Amino acid sequence: MQFQANNPISASMSEALVRWMQALDGSSEILVDADTRQIQVSSRLSAPQIIEVLRNLGFDAAPTEQSVSAHEKGGSTCCGGCS
């Protein structure tokens, strides 16, 4: 799933996100691009659960339109997080 942050992402926020996601789902994979404020998460957690983690860590983030539409339309950009 892809998320777009509305606030700047610091290195400590990125590190905290990786630690929290690994603690909740050891197989999760997280990519954070602080320059574009994009966050990609592959996890067994649901989107609402991931959003809760992001908000608890200070991220003001929401799923990207691409992430939502790909799942609704069966697109090819699936990150595998739903399986």
Q: Number of DSSP strands?
A: 4
Helix content: 25-40%
Structural class: alpha+beta
The coarse overall form would be globular
Q: Bin the strand percentage.
A: 15-25%
Rounded mean pLDDT score: 85
Alpha-carbon distance between the termini?
A: 12 Å
Low-confidence residue ranges: 68-76
Number of helices: 3
Order of helices and strands: EHEEHEH
Strand order, largest beta sheet: 2-3-1-4
Outline the biggest β-sheet.
4 strands, antiparallel
Q: Kindly provide the radius of gyration, computed on alpha-carbon positions and rounded to a whole number of angstroms.
A: 12 Å
Q: Can you tell me about this structure?
A:
- The chain has 83 residues and is an alpha+beta fold.
- 40% of the residues lie in helices and 20% in strands.
- The chain has a 4-stranded antiparallel β-sheet.
In brief, what are we looking at here?
The protein is an alpha+beta fold. It contains 3 helices and 4 strands.
Task: List the keywords.
40% helix; alpha+beta; 4-stranded antiparallel sheet; single chain; 3 helices; 83 residues
Write the layout of secondary structure elements.
Layout: E1 2-5, H1 11-24, E2 29-33, E3 38-42, H2 47-56, E4 61-63, H3 65-73
Antiparallel strand pairs: 1-3, 1-4, 2-3
